[in-house]
Amino acid sequence: MNDLPTTRDEVAFLARRAGWGLAPGELDSWTALGTSAFIDALTQPDAVGIAAEASPWVDFEYVDPAGDNKSRVAMARQVLDSWLGHLASTQRPFENSLAWFWHDHFAVSGQVVNYLPALIDHLDLLREAGTGDFVELIRSVTTDAAMLVFLDGATSTGDAPNENYGRELLELYTVGVDSYTEDDVVAAARALTGWVVRRRDGWAVRYRPARHDDSPQTLLGVSGVHDVDSTVEAACGHQACPGFIATKMARHYLGPVDESVVAELSATFANSGLDIMTLGRAVLETGIAGNGEPQILAPVPWLIHAVKATGADIPVRSRLAMLRNMGQVPGQPPNVGGFPGSSTWLGSSATAARFSSANEISRLTPDDSVALTAAAQREWDELADVCLRPSGFSAATLDALGALSTSASRRPGEAALGVALASPDLVVG
Amino acid sequence: MISRRSFLEGAGAVAGSAAVGGAVWAAVVRDSVNNHAAQLTFGLPTTTSTTTTTTGAPVAAATDRVLVLLELAGGNDALNTLVPIAGSPNGAYHDLRPTLALDDAETIELASTDCALHAALAPIAPLWDESKMAIAAGVGIAGQSRSHFKAMDAWWAGSGAPTQTGWLGRWLDASLDAERNGVDDPLRAIALGGGARALAASNSTATVVRNPSSFQLRTAGQNDADAIIDAFLATSSPLASNPTLASAQQAIPITVDAVNVMSSVIASPDAAVSEEGNQAGSSEVSTLLQAAAGIVELGIGTRVITVGINGFDTHADQLARHSVLWSEVAEGLAGFFARLEASGNRDRVTVLTTSEFGRRAAENGSGGTDHGGGGLQFLFGSDLQSQQIRGALDLSSLRNGDLPVVLETPSVYAAALHWLGDPAHVSASVGEDVETLPFFSRP
Does B260 lie in the same domain as B238? Predict the structure, then answer.
């Protein structure tokens, strides 16, 4: 159970789990406005007057690299930099957090989808459709060019169906591994045949009826000739779907929660007609009510939180190297299951890379940073508060910071700020 | 200011032996590698040799056997790795795979069998004639799933039943008393790149290094790197009561030790990796296996190393992809054994491959194969019976289009564990009723 004794703790909790952190001063402001105002801002930004935001990639211009690998890498770097910059600056952080959740869920990798405009379209789709109707999200993703290539739908034909997408649609995206049979996988694969991606035509998606399998199939108990709509309906309409998605979202934001809590969330999601933001809000509210556990932060949120707390200006190459070394690069989930579970972030590679990254972030923190000033003045409670731990550091970290000689730093506070950022306190969200 | 020594003493009082055991090891390692007497500050007497630690746990000599588990994640296609070349299976093979079937020129015949290896395995094919390669064919777990994740769970657990521990983790636990007087040592089991799930244990901690090439503790040009690393270590003690925070604390001393070890087995971390990936000519699997060889040579008592790579989920464009994957694995293994041969450590090591399932017997329409059933495991080592393929890729009795599982993976695990250590510890890993397949001539 989370112990959230004050409004300040509640706001800090929401900002850590669902808000990509806060910049100095923002915790004060939101605490003054109150927890429910903060939840409203996170979950219904339009209603509270927060302006719409353009895609992070609105200014991206794709130039065919024509075999020039350097230019390809440079463009990929630019795409990731825009994304990370947007996560650190967005005024609609929970929407972007949900898009990140769906990125982890669908796990489309830019290493497989080797065409940046298609990857960007996919990520924009997750941003745009990732807060509304879950059925529409699944439908859109199913015929999205990046997904058709990622899981081979584009080469699946009625004569020789490819089961890759059909299986993962059921196992990973909608109902879970215990809720379908192998026959359902085959039926889904057959039902989804006929879609192609015209690579020479900017990866345009087309439906070719001649490639579709029109033989009747039984899919999750629904018989007939299936197409995309009926397949998506069968999967999303299956009784296991609301609970599968509610469980995954609750775990993502809250860690393990009691089955009774999941059952409530699942019912809320089902009763809303599978409205994603309704589920998202319910997850945050039950977290505030004390359900859930302390969580190990993945490298991407850890980095964004550190950047916002310190104001550090990190060159794109360094940012990406940090994330690569910590083991989580946006746009590159390691396999179809998405990014690994939280214990991975306590492995030795991630731990060492986090320490090295923390010291580099501290080095790149501007002189007038509130966090650096607090570290230089050895105001540890102030430093913890800027880092969204209003209850202060643990005894171990306090002792460690207190024992660290000021002469270890090149600039006052730099060494201590690095150790604080890498400390177990800030790894646990 | 807190010193490393006082940190360790403090941690010993509160955190128990796990962190201390590991950190003490780092000192031993550092000493043996760098021979800097001044660095022996971890509470060790200056006369410390590499035979005991202050905890009294016996230190494994460099004669200990080491099992290297090589995971080929994604589901390696068994039929195009071990190819039927004679008799009726051969005709069925070509019928099922009109575009994927390999012909004689694309394979290497295995003497005294009716099978051949994919030509990409050429760098390790000579091991067959040297009796240093054995194969389990049609291997799997009874009732295993075609889901990657469910099948992996079963392979890591070593059983079809759900369990929190892995088969190697249970062996580490079972042998902990006999081999280490019950004192945990995270360097006893090291995961490189993947495979860590097999090491999950109740009383034994493993070290998990995803990418040895970029594995360092950097302090960004501060005045006193040691003081900063000391402070980082100090954040791990005393342990918090909250288990999540405590687990984040415990990761720190394990990491500092692992960095010390890996820095001595990776030649030049800076040169090895660029932002775009590994240097040309050095595949990921090769880098990981070279690091594994370095750990074996270091003789720090590591008994199990897992190496994991991805990419075997070849639903499309399989001919080209599978060939590249196996070329890299075969070159990596050849380089691994060549290095161990040169350092006199080859006979200490057995490599066992795993992959969560084989693939469908028939190809799909994308030039690939979908998830299937019975798969392959290779064993490589000096103590194997000559030229044996146990089990078979049985094309005459497909089940739902899959090769049947005719050998149980745990019985292959049992063989490897019998070779690795005391036979008394095998059943704790794989269960009482599992047959031990006689792969080894010198168990």
Answer: yes
Taking the CA of residue A401 as centre, how many other CA atoms within 13 Å lie in the half-sphere pointing to its CB?
A: 29
Full-model pTM: 0.86
Whether residue B292 sits in one domain with residue B165 = yes
Q: Round to whole Å and give the CA distance between A358 and A360.
A: 5
Q: Where are the domains of chain A?
A: 7-52+239-288, 92-236, 299-427
Mean pLDDT, residues A383-390: 98
Strand ranges for A25-165 from DSSP E: none
Which of A334, A416, A428 is opposite residue B244, by nearest beta carbon? A428
Q: Write the residue in B149, B216, B244 that is nearest to A294 by C-beta.
A: B244
Of the two residues B12 and B287, the one the predictor is more confident about is B287
Average pLDDT over residues A133-159: 96
CB-based contact A161 B275, cutoff 8 Å: no
Residues of chain B neighbouring A409 (CB-CB closer than 8 A): 222-223
Residue B137 lies in a domain: yes
pLDDT higher at B280 or B141: B141
Same-domain check for residues B318 and B416: yes
Q: Is residue B183 domain-shared with residue B290, that is, in the same domain?
A: yes
| Coarse DSSP helix, strand, coil percentages of chain B, rounded to the nearest 5 percent | 45, 15, 40
For residue A348, give the nearest of B207, B231, B232 by CB distance: B207
pLDDT given for residue A226 in this prediction: 94
Range of the domain at B132: 60-215+283-430
From chain B, pick out residues whose CB is under 8 angstroms from the CB of A296.
244, 247-248
Q: How many pairs of residues across A and B have Cβ atoms under 8 Å apart?
A: 220
Please give the full DSSP string across A92-106, using - where no structure is assigned.
-HHHHHHHHHHHHHH
The Cα-based distances of A376 to A414, B85, B113, B431 in angstroms read 7, 73, 72, 58
Residues B122-171 pLDDT 10s: 999 999 999 999 999 999 998 889 999 889 989 999 876 778 899 999 99
Q: How far apart are alpha carbons A253 and A342 in whole angstroms?
A: 12
CB A415 within 8 A of CB B234: no
Same structural domain for residues B341 and B256?
no
Residues 6+ apart with CB under 8 A from A281: A39, A43
Q: In terms of domains, do B322 and B423 share one?
A: yes
| Model confidence pLDDT, tens digit, residues B406-423 | 999 999 999 999 999 999
Examine the domain organization and report whether B409 and B324 are in the same domain: yes
Place of tokens 């895609």: A55
Is B220 within a domain?
A: no
Contact B148 A335 (CB under 8 A): yes
Give the ipTM of the model, two decimals please. 0.94
What's the CATH number where B152 sits? 3.40.720
* Residues B165 and B89 placed together within one structural domain of the fold: yes
pLDDT for the residue B267: 59
Decide if B278 is inside a domain. Answer: no
What is the three-class DSSP state of B336?
helix
Chain B nearest-CA residue for A178 = B150
B150, B252, B370: residue with CB nearest A162:
B370
pLDDT digits (tens, 9 = 90+) for B386-397: 989 999 999 999
Q: Which of A148, A293, A348 to mutate to test the interface with B (most CBs of B within 10 A)?
A: A348
Pairwise CB contact (< 8 Å): A419 & B370: no
Domain count, chain B: 2
Check CB contact of A133 with chain B, cutoff 8 Å. no
pLDDT of residue A2: 52
If you measure CA to CA, which chain B residue comes closest to A345?
Answer: B248
In a domain, B224, yes or no: no
Closest A-chain CA to B244: A294
Nearest chain B Cα distance for residue A425, angstroms: 7
* Cβ distance of A327 and B224 shorter than 8 Å: no
Q: Which tens digits make up the pLDDT trace of A65-110?
A: 888 889 988 999 999 999 999 999 999 999 999 999 999 999 999 9
